[in-house]
Amino acid sequence: MKKLTALVALVFIFISCSNKTKEKTSFSTEALKETLLTREGNQVSFESILKANEGKTTVIEVWASWCGDCIKAMPKLKELQAKHPEVNYVFISMDKTEIAWQNGIIKHDLKGSHFMANDQMKGKFAGAIDLDWIPRYIVIDKTGKIALYRAIETDFDLIDKTITELK
C-alpha cells in the first residue's frame, strides 16, 4: 500500500510540474486588449502591435532602462539582431517615466519598434503576460503564434535556436 501511495504521489507531482512548464502558444484576451504607449504619445493595443508584425518572426523584449540585467544583455541582443536581420524586434519598456524610457532607447541605440507599459512591472499588462523578471524575451512565429514564451537574459542560445527553426 505504501508503494502505491508513493507512486500516486509521484504521478501527481509529475503531472502538476509538467503543466506549469508548458509553454503558452497564444496570448490571453486580457493581454491582447491592454494598451501600450507609443513613442509619439499615442495608445495602441498589444493586439494591434502583434498584427502589425504578422508575416515576420518577431522577438519581443520586455525591459527597462533601470534594469541592470537588461543592460548587461544588450550586447547579446545586438548580436542576435545582426545574425537575424530578417526578424522584427519589439521592445516593451517597464520604465516608470516616459523620459527615462525615451532616453534609454537613445542611450542604448535600440533598433526596433518601441512601446511602454502604462503601469510597469506590477500592472495589468505585466500580469497578463506572466511577467516575473526582466529582461524577458518572447518569440512569435510568422503566423502570430508564440514559439517561445518565457526566456531571460541567459537564454540567448535558446532564442537563437528558436528563431533558426522558424526560418
Automatic annotation (TrEMBL):
The keyword Disulfide bond applies. It is found in: Cell envelope. InterPro entries: Redoxin, Thioredoxin-like_sf, Thioredoxin_domain, Thioredoxin_ResA/DsbE_sf. GO terms for cellular component: cell envelope. One of its GO terms (biological process) is cytochrome complex assembly. Residues 25-167 form the Thioredoxin domain. It comes from the Bacteria. It holds the Pfam family Redoxin. Its main location: other. One of its GO terms (molecular function) is oxidoreductase activity. Keywords: Cytochrome c-type biogenesis, Disulfide bond, Redox-active center. This is Alkyl hydroperoxide reductase. It comes from Flavobacterium faecale.
